[in-house]
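Q: Trace token order:
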Amino acid sequence: MAPRAFARLAEINAASGEAKALRVAVEGGGCSGFQYDIRLDDPAPDDLVLEGEGQKVLVDSVSLPFLQNAVIDYADELIGARFVVENPNATSSCGCGTSFAI
């Protein structure tokens, strides 16, 4: 996870007064075949928990192979501010970057 993403997650947690983790999951669907599900959540027993800068990122065991070597970053652009996934496993993706194909 990129430092910007950890920093933004810390800001979100500070503003909400809760210490939630960022869940990054892969689901079927989207215009390219798979789509990312990025949300605040609590750890589940089968999650891989990545920690950095006092923050946690969760990846479930089903999503893990699709996200191997991926980098989660935070982008604040004209189209909006959001967490983004730079996934080297994706062979193509949609224009908005929320869905991808392998």
Notes: The radius of gyration is 13 Å. Residues 3-16 form the longest helix (14 residues). The chain has a mean pLDDT of 87.
